[in-house]
Structure formats: C-alpha cells, structure tokens
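Lab manual, section 2.4: Encoding a predicted structure.

Procedure: take the sequence of the chain (408 residues), apply the prediction step described in section 2.3, and record the output as structure tokens. A sample record is shown.
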Amino acid sequence: MFVAIRENGEYISLVEKWERSDLLKLRTHEVFRCPACLSNVQLKAGVKKTQHFAHLQGAECTVKTEPESEYHLEGKRQLYQWFQDQGYNVKLEPFLSDISQRPDLLVTTENKRFAIEYQCSQIDYSLFKKRSDSYKNEGIIPIWILGAKWFKRISTHSVRLSPFQWLFATSYHQPIDPSILYYCPDSTTFIKLSNLQPFTTGEAFCSIHFVKEKVISFPRLLAPNNPTFPLRELWGRKKQKWRGSYSVYSTRHLTSFLTNLYHNRIPPAHLPAEAGLPVLSAYWFHTPPMIWQMWILLDLLFPLRSGGTFFFSKVMEVISKRIATKDIMIRQLPLVFHTQYSLAVEEYLQILVKAGILRKISKTKYEKTKEFEIPTNLEEASKMDEKQLASVGKHEEEGLAKYNSGTD
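Recorded output:
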C-alpha cells in the first residue's frame, strides 16, 4: 500500500515518488501504522521495487486484501495520477470505516462516488461480491479493473474469458450490455471489451479497444461502444467448425444433452439452424448458446404441434428445471444491473418470431406456427445457418441501436 499513518497522526503517501535517501532517513526515526487496522507497517524503500508500506511478516490486517505485486503497485499509482490529471477529487487507499473497506482509489465527482479496484490477482466470487455490495450499499459505484496480464486474445475479434474474468463484466449504463476493463501499467494502456457475445464457455466475440490513458477521459472510458466486428460472418464460420468437431469434446456434463439428441435422432452436427444464435444478453449463460437454446427446442417446442400455444412462464420453467439439473448453467455477474437471464430467453424467442417459427399473440403468449427443419448433412446445415444468421444480424443491429439510444 502507498498510504500509512505517521506517529503524529498525519497521513503519509508514497504515490509521488520520493528520493530513496529521504525515505531511508525517515524510516530510521519514525514508526508507521496501517490506516485500517492501526498495526505497525514497514516502509519498503528498495531499489528494484516501487516504494510502499507492508504489514510486518505474520501480521494480518482486519481489511482483507491480497499481496500487491510490483505490477499492481505501479498500475495503481498510474491510475491515481490519471484521475488527478483530469481534476478529479481522488483519494488513495482511503479506509471506509462504515464498511471496513479500503478501495485502491475513491473518486468523487459532483454527484457520484466511485470505488476503483485494480485487481491483478484472483479472488473468489464471494469476496468479490461482498466488496461490490458493500460499496453499492454506501451509494458508491464499484469500478473493477483487471490487470492486463489477464487479457487473453484468441483472434482479432475473440478472447478467452474465465469465470473469474466474467465477474468484471459491468453494465455502466442502463440497459447497455456489459464491458470488461483492463489496464497495463507497462504500456499505460486501457483495454476495453464490449458487445460481448459468448460462443462457448471460455470464448467470446467482442469489440476490443486499446487506448492510451493519456488520450481518454474517465467518462469516455465508461461510455458505450458500438460493435466493431462482423458478428454474422464470424459466428457462421465458428458454428460450422463447431458442427464438425463438437461430438469429439463430449463430457459427462453433456451426457443428458447428447442422450436427448439421439432419442430425437438428431446428430450434434445436425442441430437446426435456430439452435445456437447470438442474442444480445447471452452473456448471462455460461452454457454455450447451441446447448441452452437447443434445450428449449427439445423440452418445449419440438413436442408442441403447429398451432399450439404456450406462455413465457413455461419457457422459464423449462430453463429452471435444466438449471436445477445443471444441464444449463448461469453466469455469476454481480456488476450487471437492471437485467437477468430471462431477458436473453425473451430475445431468443423474438428471433424465432422473426424467423416465422413462432407468432407472438400477446405480451407473454406465443404460438408455434411451423416445424423446425433438421439438416441432413453439413453442407445443408451451413446454408441454413447462413440464412438464419442473416435475419439475426438485422435483429442484432436493431437491438443495439435501441440500446445505444436508451429507448425501450
């Protein structure tokens, strides 16, 4: 940490780099204490690492924190300077006694407060949620930024995201889809992932923005971004590849899914084109879209005859049962507000309406208007996917335009 309490009760900050000789003199005749637990801390003034304070070996602070690497310390120092340069009221490592939290930075604007957490090491979901909820309960907006070492790019428009990284997905603007922020102190660069479209449990298509901290403001960093990637083409190629190799990756968690497919005489490579479509809020599902959407078809829409009707609550009942049996898994997204996974299900039904499979009778009631076509080979499946994705692409563009305009 960069802040400690001196013997006279004053705070001392090391964020502005001191001369090492001055710190060595200071260390010889002063004792420093942690602002949170008031226990003694040691002034570290080496030549290789950033100057900082650290608890004595074996001592535990009452505020749960992780060991700070050189990378973490330097990133936090740069972010502090970035806010200062923009004229913000920013405090470094303030101890918030009401909630026993010590964010890396506390930024105050005219009518809002932001707790900035720069996270370089992994923490579990319960601690992440506890910290975030504590801030929110105090009327403080939590902004979590990942160290850029977590950024794993697969291709120009796709990344690898672990469940831990998904925790950082944040909806800054209602009802805009969430984004994930990274910061690299080595290159003084922010990386922002937006328009997240998960394809598998670990891979997602997205817009990837690299921007130097010197040329972007805090409000602009949080502002929504329009898609910068050709989703339909990318999705179509990826889905074609998935069809040809999916059965190779079968696991015990998919036994029920594969069993149901074979009972319906549908090879995994021959799913109907309507299973596995990108929807705006699909980030709620850890389970790939090919699977969670196919469960809706298998459990509800396949058995229903043309002309048959159902309510949205029935679809949610199907999803809930598959969640209970772990055939479908929902993501933990503690920083995504004003929405839930039911929105992704509703968006999927809207696509089926546009495809002519369903007709919407009322706000919550649907009618099945025609049967699904099952492809007989990969070439036919590819053509059906292409046709269906063309319709989805238009639906996506309309949806994003609505979100970016803030209208319902």
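Check your result against the sample. The first strand starts at residue 3 and ends at 5.
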